[in-house]
Structures
1.
Amino acid sequence: MQSDAIKKLIALREVGTGLLLIGVVLAALAKNPHFLDPKNLNSILLWIPLLVVVGMGQMLVILTRGIDVSVGSTMGVAGIVVGMLFRDHPGLNIFLGAGIGIAIGCLLGAINGGLIAWAKVPPIIATLGTLSAYRGLAFIVCKGEQIDSNNIPESLTDWTLKGPISISGITFSWLMVWASVVAIIVAYFLKSSRTGRDIYALGSHPEAARLRGIPVPKVTFLVYSVCGALAGLAGVLYASRYGFVNPGTAGQGFELTVIAAVVIGGTNVLGGSGTVLGVLLGCVLLGTINVALAVLGIDAAWQMLVYGLVILIALTVDSYLQRFLRKMDVRN
Amino acid sequence: MRKLLGRTELVPAGLLVLAFIAGAMQSKYFLDVRYLLDSSTLYVETGLLAIGMTFVIISGNIDLSVASMTALVACVSAKLMASGWSMPAGCAAGLGLGLVLGGFNGIMVAKVKLPSFVVTLATMAVYRGIAQVLLGAESVKLPTSFIGLDMQHLPGHIPVPLVVLLTVALILAIVLHRSLFGRWVIALGTNEEASYYAGLPTSTVKISVFCLSGLLAAVAALMMNSRLGVARFDDARGLELDAITAVVLGGASIFGGKGTMLGTVLALFLVAVIRIGMGVANVKAEYQLAVIGTLLVIAILAGNLSSKMTAKR
């Protein structure tokens, strides 16, 4: 009975996010009939991949009742280091560069994971501390110098500009391909692997999970390491997308956008429920909102307010939906 | 003697002495008492936030939105005063707004039953977002009569803001350690369920704690306006980190139920001395941020370790 209720809740939330997406598109179209022009669609499609890559990691973390607010700074460090490598070794293979980005992110994520899993530091405090520490690290590594566009290899920026599929002016870029690969792997991992199921169990009831023999600290550590690794990959994708990396602005504040995408996509902040499909919808929604704001001529000043409101609304709706379902359960 | 040695405030107090010695070795200007006293006015706002945060953290919650509340109240009260409101009316409106913003956090936590870290993470964006929408990139000038509280001194070159901070700390120390409300806050942080079954008004205590945090953020906003003379939406950016660091360094348990006002105040001076010292040594802002962030993590690690050791004994 209960799992039925949870399935219903998840389906309901995804439909809700979908409807919201349609609502945003219709509202934007009403104001500006050219909203769905190829140019705007392309910019939405460019917005989504970074969100998806970081969002998948953030989702894993939130599923375990945690949070990682350091992802933006991790992106910054990985972007800067890989950018410096490209600057100093122009012939570097871009896939090797991406691999190094992932490794750096994984290391930074593992520090978070270690602090949270074994030193028992609450996730918000650990990652709030590393949010500042990693941002400082980004400055220290490059001595405050920005990586300019002439240092980013053309083959890397081609990930953004070109893609395997291009239909009537709309490009499905390589960035989207990599993001899809990440999403598919995470979806498969969550659904079919033992550890994937452990993550849900851990988030649903940490104490019960421990008593069932789930290695709670190991799973926690893994989740933050993966989250960091994906943020590291996103740092490299950032370099491709924007063509430069600044230690102060690369990924700065991105944690807020990502958390908004993950929670509006139906991932419960109390842990234990959320799907890859929901988060993907959340990322598409936030990407669309972002481009819609720009197309409708709404000042960029509204961005932060909108993200915050999105999180608040998602949280409140989830909280009441869950209470409602619990009542239904009791009645049955 | 043993009781004295067991006190958690000993750690920030000892570190404070160390920081003083390190600072004095960095620069001969550091131990200039007038310079230190004048610099202290820069950290009074952080201090007010930390005092509110002490209550929030002891109650088992966290308030990430304090700096954003400060920014929003600063912008709104500056705008009101610039549009002709009298000084007392503008201040009262600012304080009222602080209460409302804090109260909203409290209701989301107590009534909608959401974890405080996500609620205040969201309102951190929402409150600063509102300030940004209100002012955009412009800055609002305050009436000249309102500017310059930080330049006022009591005899002995003691800046008025420092007196305000210490008075607030003293009053709220009495509230925390000697009043029924203070006992409730500590009880709530120690065991929420037990407090509820013991008949404590847990929701009311939670909402009050967040209201207090909002109110103190508003006081900080007014003092910041008076010090800077202009209000901008990005005022007080990142101050929540310093405030939380001070509270945790002061020996408050991040899991709630434990902490003292004296500890917070000592740790606050520690954070201020470290910041002033780094300023004297020309350490860049981003590096300072990294140092404070690392300090926060280390403080918690040390706290966890010491409570583990006491538990074993």
2.
Amino acid sequence: MKIKSPKDFWSGLMFVASGLFFAIWAITHYQMGTAVRMGPAYFPTMLGGLMVVLGLMILASGLAMQGPKVPPFRFRPLLMISLGLVLYGYLMKPLGLVGATAALVYVGALGGHEFRWKEVTILYVILILFSWLVFVKGLSLPFPLWPAAYS
Amino acid sequence: MEVFANLWMGFGVAFTLQNLFYAFVGCILGTLIGVLPGIGPVATIAMLLPITFNLNPLSALIMLAGIYYGAQYGGSTTAILVNIPGESSSVVTCLDGYQMARQGRAGPALAIAALGSFFAGCVATLIIAVAAPPLAEVALKFGPSEYFSLMVFGLIAATVLAHGSLIKAIAMVVWGLLFGIIGTDVNSGVLRFTFDIPELSDGIGFVIVAMGMFGATEIIMNLEQGEHREIFATKVKNLWLTMEDFKAAWPAVLRGTALGSCLGILPGGGALLASFGAYTVEKKVSKNPERFGKGAIQGVAGPESANNAGAQTSFIPMLTLGIPGNAVMALMIGALMIQGIAPGPQVMNEKPQLFWGLIASMWIGNLMLVVLNLPLIGMWVKLLTVPYRYLFPSILVFMAIGVYSLSNNPFDVLIMAVFGILGYVCAKLECEPAPMILGFILGPLMEENLRRAMLLSRGDPTVFFTKPISAAFMIASLILLVVVALPAIRKKREEAFAEETK
């Protein structure tokens, strides 16, 4: 067996795995019920099964027909953007808007093509001012501005 | 005429200072993100959704709607001047619009795009006003089996009209449905797929999913590609159309408006499909099709009218049935739900001011857009010179604030990042995120209606085919599937979408 169309093959595999997961988890953890009175497992099991069938069809076509390669993954932007967002969320309470935005802007900017300290810092200051004016002052969202230790 | 009385009332509510202000804000924002490539209406509306909680429902909807059709105007500006489609629905405008600009006719191209859009917007507003009430009337009689079949039809139509592989699109819909039912099961109170994480017991907010898969993914994909933009026409002179231009363009505007209005109503339709359809039609009916791609004014007038008409008529299924035809409409439904309004046919009767006010505001918004766009074109073009390395951290900050403010919970931001990564993987594997979002929003609704229908029919699944309206939806879905699976049509469909990827 040779993978002729990697895009189809891998996406098929992704669908099969995910469908199987949902269906098996539903069957083993929740009640099935009957068609008249559907239990919590009924709908997800149906959908999971359907997804496995669809995934197998895509997988099969990935083996049968010639198709394009999966373009290479570039991990830097992917990692930096995701990490920046997660940091923002988890640093908001301990470090306040000032700290969380710093983490997001600097880490996020590392995912770009070029990183210039001066530019990013100016951008950071502008974004902090904007966030503070619009969201904290304007829309009165309950964000702490400064790290928790200082306020 | 009841329609006019209703519209009159709508104008009454829309013409308050506050609502005019929000229509203006929406139009400005829409044009802005329409001009800027790399951020679309879906991500913007998702970002602003938490903020709309503080507004009254009408102002919130007016602003969000303004963003959607404002983006259609803004997108065409960059398509014509810089050959970059700011929005995906302006891709075809690049073909002839940019050529016109290169021949020194950027002015007429921009003028016809704006005027065509305005005309289409006016017509589409009227169509909504006339068509929506009877549709809602019919929809009020729908039972659970009709609703279930309608949703099946909607989802299938959405996948047929989406580009890329059909089976992949259906698989994405199913995946979306599954993600949608994460959380507490309303019937039994059982926590499904929550893995003992308390935050998941209410389900995943679809704003978070939409922002991850459209916002974060978009940024990551943009950063992978290099940054190169050149601006061709910095000075736009002479915005007036000659008599000749006008004569050539007006039939195209009419055809584009008609086609766009029809395609917009279809689930999965909306602005994108409308513009592609209109370009193909213009090329077909033209006496000299060889002029297309070399600066034919019809190639700008048709698609630009169509995408605006489609953007507006896609509100019809959302307003009358409570069913979103595309991702933007899914977000609009989310905006209604944030306000505690259950979307569906009853909205028109229970909240006539909301309904007619929104429709009236569309017309006002369109007028604002013409005024905003034509004289201020120089300013919008200047915006394009802002490098992406300033833009993307700003977008990131707005996304993060938006999601965090939903419930002040870092977990939401984490989920957004997870869906951003998932969206990235899907993009690499050529799986479209839009069908997944539709499935995601319809998941709980579909399960609920399936359960009720089966309970009423005592477990007999043929009920979906024996009730006439339900059967009609089911048969229509089957026909759609069969038709698209036929090799000849599949080839045509691939050709139609191939033009986009060029």
